[in-house]
Amino acid sequence: MGQNLVIVESPAKMRTIKKFLGSSYTVAASMGHVRDLPKSKMGIDVEHDFEPQYIAIRGKGELISSLRKEVKKADKIYLATDPDREGEAISWHLMTALGLNDAKDKKVYRITFNEITKNAVKNAIKSPREINQDLVDAQQARRIMDRLVGYMISPVLWKKIRKGLSAGRVQSATLNIICKREEEIAAFVPVEYFTIEGTIKHGQKSIKAAYYGENGKKTELRDKELAESIVKEVKSSGVTVTEVRQSERLRNAPLPFTTSTMQQEAARTLSMAPQKTMRIAQKLYEGVDVEGHGSIGLITYLRTDSVRISDEAFEAAKAFVSSRYGKDYVSYARPAGKNSQNVQDAHEAIRPTYIDITPTELKEQLGRDEFRLYKMIWERYVASRMTPARYDTVNVRMQSGSHTFTAAGSKLKFDGFLSVYRASEEEEEKQDLSFMKEGQSLGFDKLEAIRHQTEPPAHYTEASIVKKMEEDGIGRPSTYAPTITTLTSRRYISKEKRNLFVTELGTAVNDLMRGSFPSIVDEQFTANMEYMLDSVAEGKLEWRSLIRNFYPDLKEAVDEAEANLSRVKVADQVTDVICEKCGRNMVIKYGPHGKFLACPGFPECRNTKPFVEKIGLKCPRCGKDIVVRRSKKGRIFYACEDPECEYVSFIRPKGDKNGVAIEKKLANKEES
Fold it and tell me: Within the chain, what is the greatest distance between any pair of CA atoms?
């Protein structure tokens, strides 16, 4: 019997798949891409119809040699890289790097699986296919387009602003969205308005009611005197119940996760950055060691914008919910998301591969973050396969002369999916209105006019910018997290608590991009490009045609910017640290290893020193500032700014009312 070789992308996936296959199969890992465009130059031959000049990635020579040896031993080679465009391109590059295009004595197949389970892997091997060249071409078009944008515009930023900056097709459009939100916030003018709210007591019961409007129409109160006059009038006369409307309200189960919604929910409920979410999800997908199972993949493929689930998963979920929660909890409807031209239905939603492996069973076997993310995915999926929650609701209208007040209450009648998943539960008005009858006269125990101001738009968070990118069709599931990471690492944006803020550097870069490359930062243009790339993937558009139409306008804009743009000065952030050599206030600079302090008197004064980030708390031992430090292994810890002081904490300290850190657990400073 001939030997079979299966090539996957990662060692974790390799270990998981090995146990599903017999001794006639060897499983090897490519460790991601093996060929790419060179970093030292553009790597695209514009004169010869944008021919890409791929080379073996530096450091991959030994790996490629090892894979070639395995290829020689095998009769059949199965390319089992990830089931997306990037995975398709990796398989295509492997064909060239391993000499498989000319191997007449070898049979080469492409296989994909959405989950790493025994059935999925076995079924994939039973139904192999050829490499999908349309998917490869879509990835090539994206890669070449992004290379053209990055390698042609970035040098303009270096010349006009500062070295080390970058532009990108998705990155620059996303930065522009964040900048526009900042501008909206800066331009916002608050408007004062009032609401009238009160409580009505009836025996031992007390309910909340709010002013609705006058003469049956909803009325906004912009005038303080008017609001207070209504309060005075109603307090003296009371209200009469004119309508009591009882009904049942359904709250539908959530849809299973897509990449975007998983990132949003993880950021919102787990305080987990998108990049970290994807890193942990990748581990759960590729395989973790579970007692009694060995290495198994716990979730399906993590890069998807579809909420579809397979027939097998659909039936398994029905059986699980019925046995665990009862037949009344089983949903027989398939999940149906919003129809959009941007949705690619190649993959299922993100779900557990084995629904019967509950989070509780894995709590002691997974790391803290792995457990929390798996629990979130498992609960969301199980909830998505359950019936809606049902509420009995009561809505009451009350009248005082021409003024209408309303009150609302609800009572959970059947918990449905809420028995599993309550992470996104809305606040329900749970007050009991059962005593209220039409014609009843009531008086307010308390009634007041409350002053408010309209609020500016909220700053984007990592969760909300991912949602915006998805809604506008900017990027794809695989690019959301890397885009945010790039903007942060380039210091175009900063994160404070959960909010994203544009830095001065980010504003300068965006202003230049808006002025000279408006199409690159335009959301609609970027979304249209994604649509065109999808057309390439579907075989409807030839990839070179897309690049031919894109390149001339880009080249013209770059030439124009280089010739006519003036240099932009970005002010350095001034600190209160005094240069001991010349007395100036030192400024924050950025180097290859992060922030450092430098004297603004350069080149006359070349003094520099490490940047120390203070956290606003005083040392409980000596009273000096506590600062953030990093150990030799990269672990963040908190210590007194005085190197002689022994205070250290590996947990961010909290302060007392005097701003002094509360000392809980001491650590030996030598450990750091």
Answer: 97
Ranges of H-type helices in 243-367: 259-270, 274-286, 311-325, 359-362
Sign of the torsion angle spanned by Cα atoms 81, 101, 64, 122? positive
pLDDT at 290 (0 to 100): 87
Give the separation between CA 151 and CA 441, rounded to whole angstroms: 75
Where does residue 107 rank: exposed (0-12), middle (13-18), buried (19+ CB within 10 A)?
middle
The 10s digit of each residue's pLDDT in 605-632 is 989 988 888 888 999 999 999 998 877 6
**Phi and psi based region of residue 497 (left: phi greater than 0; alpha: psi -120 to 50; beta: remaining):** left
How many other CB atoms sit within 10 Å of the CB of residue 311? 8
Label the pairing between strands 403-414 and 288-290.
unpaired
Query: Cα dist. 506→72, 267, 469, 559, 575 in Å?
Result: 52, 23, 18, 22, 20
Residue ranges in the chain whose pLDDT is less than 50: 339-345, 424-425, 665-672
CB contact at 8 A, 240 and 441 = yes
* pLDDT of res. 557: 95
The residue among 425, 409, 482, 385 whose CA lies nearest residue 168 is 482
How far is CA 66 from its chain centroid? 37
Cα 88 to the center of its chain, rounded Å: 24
Residue-level pLDDT at 291: 87
Q: What pLDDT is stored for residue 642 in this prediction?
A: 87
Q: ∠191-192-198 over CA atoms, to 5°?
A: 140
pLDDT at 404: 97
Between the two ends of the chain, the Cα-to-Cα distance in Å is 56
In this structure, the number of other CB atoms found within 10 A of the CB of residue 490 comes to 21
pLDDT given for residue 496 in this prediction: 82
Give the pair of three-digit tokens for residue 320: 């699980």
Angstrom distances, CA of residue 504 to CA of 43, 161, 232, 501 = 32, 11, 51, 10
Listed in order, strand segments (DSSP E) in 417-520 are: 441-442, 444-453, 493-496, 499-502
Q: How far, in whole angstroms, is CA 588 from its chain's centroid? A: 29
- Tell me, what's the pLDDT at 592? 55
Q: What pLDDT is recorded for position 672?
A: 37
109 an active-site residue?
Answer: no
Give the pair of three-digit tokens for residue 333. 């409807």
Catalytic residue among 301, 421, 492, 638: 301
How far apart CA 267 and CA 278 sit, in angstroms, is: 11
Q: In 3-state terms, what secondary structure has residue 371?
A: helix
Query: Within 10 A of 91 (CB to CB), how many other CB atoms are there?
Result: 26
The reported pTM is 0.82
- DSSP label of 651: S
Instruction: Please answer whether residues 585 and 576 qualify as being in contact, where contact means their C-beta atoms are separated by less than 8 angstroms.
Output: yes
Distance between CA atoms of 294 and 153, rounded to whole angstroms? 49
CA-CA distances (angstroms) from residue 349 to 261, 273, 376?
A: 10, 20, 14
Task: Please tell me the predicted confidence (pLDDT) of residue 34.
Answer: 95
Enter the tokens of residue 592: 């290859």
The pLDDT value given to residue 427: 52
Q: Which helix or strand (DSSP H or E) is residue 290 part of?
A: strand 288-290
Report the distance separating Cα 570 and Cα 572, nearest Å. Answer: 6
Residue 363 and residue 374 in contact, taking contact as beta carbons nearer than 8 Å = no
**CB environment 44-72: b (16+ within 10 A), e (fewer):** beeeeebeeebebbeebeebbeebeebbe
pLDDT, tens digit, for every residue of 15-51? 899 989 988 999 999 999 999 999 999 999 999 999 9
Dist CA 36 CA 79 (whole Å): 18
Distances (CA, A) of 230 to 201, 222, 447: 20, 13, 10
